[in-house]
Amino acid sequence: MTNAPALTVRTISREEHLAAITDRPSVSFLQTPAWAQVKKEWKAESVGWFDGDTIVGAGLVLYRQAPRLRRYLAYLPEGPAIDWEAAAKAGDLRRWLDPLVSHVKEYGAFGLRMGPTVVTRVWENATLKAALADEQIKRLGDVPADETTEIGNSLARQLRDAGWRPPPDSEGFAAGQPRHVFQLPLHGKSEDDVLRGFNQLWRRNVKKATKSGVVVTQGSGADLTAFHELYVETAHRDNFTPRPLGYFQGMWEAMQAESPDRIRLYLAHHEGDLVAATTMTRVGTHAWYSYGASSNAKREVRASNAVQWQMISDALADGCDVYDMRGITDTLDESDPHAGLIRFKLGTGGRAVEYLGEWDLPISGLLYKAFDLYMKRRS
């Protein structure tokens, strides 16, 4: 433990929040001020960590009210944006988190949840291919990682010691943000380098889309209705509940107002027909594939590969270090339909990354337990 001066946490303005994250290479788009406008069903607050008068960290706190009570679950999705590495090395994580706990407690929080985007383990492409080919391996967690970070281990130990509850093990997509994601590193690479990293099927599909006449363009807010129609078609085919059009319109307006490059809409047409569409978000040098949709028709023209390649190319041109294809599950069981998602993403030559995950701190044990039971019954 260091003898560093105490930090304080207090409410900051939208402008202070944006300034605090501007110079960081990677801050989740869920930790931007714009996300508060997207999540209108939650109360929201931008907070800053201060060392004296100097802001040294920032976060977006969302407050979910408990039924019939003016008490809240405080939630920082994929945040906060603080110096996790320094806290891990110094062993003084409580110096950062205790002021946050005190702050949300004053607001009326009975519990605090956060999801640091701190990497704990990495599995490279070749390792994943070998694991998928082995019928005895059913879960990613059973595969020795190519990299295990000491920073992740240190933070997990400190969180447990401070009374935080670790994320539950889950083989599927759990509530909240994904613990396992699939990322394509871009730093120092050219388009040719990335293409060479694609597997043979991906390269063939990208070429086929071009030869078939698939044209990928960027859309505007006016194109969200067409995107949403295709997204609903995808939801029915893949058996998930689609978000309403208004959600995407709100996201577009809020994120575009914050920065023109915060969100983009990509449309893939073939002979005038919209056959695939996606959204990409970006903060700093980190780009995310966030939502995707594809038609049941004309699947042979491989528009989904074409639109992914366009997003990757644009991320490269923008100087991004990471193209993030977001969540995957822990399953490597070929009989599980989720394994197909991993196999699709694996074709890009990327790797699987495990984050520290979402940790909970019960501030009021009784209220926290009651709210947890309420949410489980709802789901």
UniProtKB/TrEMBL annotation:
MF-aspect GO terms: aminoacyltransferase activity
UniProt keyword list: Acyltransferase, Cell shape, Cell wall biogenesis/degradation, Peptidoglycan synthesis, Transferase
Listed InterPro entries: Acyl_CoA_acyltransferase, FEMABX, PG_Glycine_Bridge_Synth
GO biological process, one term: peptidoglycan biosynthetic process
Family membership: Belongs to the FemABX family.
Protein name from the UniProt record: Peptidoglycan bridge formation glycyltransferase FemA/FemB family protein
Source species of the chain: Phytoactinopolyspora mesophila
